Amino acid sequence: MKIKAAVLNEMGVQPPYATSKPLSIEEVELDPPGHGEVLVKIAAAGLCHSDLSVINGDRPRPTPMVLGHEAAGVVEELGSGVNDLEKGDHEIMVFVPSCGHCLPCAEGRPALCEPGAVANTAGTLLSGARRLHRDGNDVHHHLGVSAFAEYATVSRRSLVKIERELPFDEAALFGCAVLTGVGAVINTARIPAGASVAVIGLGGVGLSSLIGAVAAGARRIVAVDLSDEKLGLARQLGATDTVNAASQDVLSDIREATKGGVEFAFEMAGSVRAMELAYKITRRGGTTVTAGLPPPDAALPLPLVNLVAEERTLKGSYIGTCVPTRDVPRLIELYRRGRLPGGRLKRGRLSLDDINIGFDRLAEGKAVRQVVVF
Prior knowledge:
Blueprint: E1 2-8, H1 17-20, E2 23-30, E3 37-46, H2 49-55, E4 65-66, E5 70-78, E6 90-93, H3 103-106, H4 114-122, E7 132-134, E8 137-141, E9 151-155, E10 159-162, H5 168-171, H6 177-189, E11 196-200, H7 204-216, E12 220-225, H8 228-237, E13 241-244, H9 250-257, E14 262-267, H10 272-280, E15 282-290, H11 304-309, E16 313-316, H12 324-336, E17 346-350, H13 355-363, E18 369-373
Parallel strand pairs: 4-8, 11-12, 11-14, 12-13, 14-15, 15-16, 17-18
Antiparallel strand pairs: 1-2, 1-4, 2-7, 3-5, 3-9, 3-18, 5-6, 6-10, 7-8
Helix pairs in contact: 6-7, 6-12
C-alpha cells in the first residue's frame, strides 16, 4: 500500500529545520505484515530527543529512514502467526522488540533483547525484514516502529495492547517518555518512600521521572534545567526545589539545599556536563542513574576512588528497565487514578506536514512533548 511518511534522507542537516527540512514528507510503499507482524494505523506519535539525535547525527542510523518510535494506533491487519490480537485493538508501540528467547529476555530484561538491538541498529524489523520501500529500494525502520507515517508494519513483539478509553495522543507517551522516565525511578533505582531525588534535564523523560518520584513518595525533589518555563512546570508537577543549570553556583546551591546532596540523582539530558553534575550532587552512599543518550563517542571522567570510598552506585537505564507487557498497564492505571499526570507533558499537537517545525522547537528546548496526530 502507498502511505505518506516523514523520511530522513541525510543526517546532520543544519537547523532551522523548518527551512532545511531534514524530514521529507513523501509517498512510500508499505508491505503487508509478514509472519509475526501487524499492520497498525498510526493515530498519534510523539516527537522525542531520540528522533532528534538521529536527525542531527548524534545517534548514527542508516538512511533513508522513516523516523518515529513513540506512538499509539489501531490494529488494521494481522500477519500469520499472530493470534492474540484482533483488528480494531488499540496498541502502544515499544521501541525495543523483545524476542522472548535470548538470555536477557529469559532473565526478564526484555529492554536488553539482543536480536532486538541488532535489528534496531540495522534499521529492520525483528525478523530482519524491511517493509518500507521507495522507488524500488528499501527504506529503513526506526527502532522497529517508524511511526511518523499513516501506517506502520511492525513486529507483534513491538506492541502492547491497551484499553480503548485512553486518548491516543496521551497513550503514545507511554511508549517512551513515561515508560523510560517513570521506569528509571521505580525499576532501575527502586527509590524508597521518603528519598531525596534530583532530576537533571526536564524533557518528556525527565519530567516523567519527576512525576514518578512524586508517585513513589520522594520527600524532596530537585528539578534542574536551563529553561525557566520547564522549571515552572516542574514545580506544578511536584518538584520541591528548582535550579536553573545556567547558574554558576548550581552545584553548591544544590548541595547546600540538600545538606550534602541527594540520595538519587537522575540524568535525563544526554550530555556529559549534565552527567557530571548528577554524579557530583549524589551524596555518599547514593545512586546516580542515567537514561540520557549522548553521542557514542561521549566519555565521562570519574574519580574512581569515590565509587569505593563513598560506596557510590552508577547505573544506566534503558526503557526504564521495564517489562512493557507488565509495566505499561500498571502505569496507565496509575495515570487513571491521577497518580501519574502524564497528559500534562503534552505541549502541542502537530500535523505530519509541520513535523520539521516541531523539531526546531524541540532542538531549541522550547517543547516538552509535541504529538503528531493523524
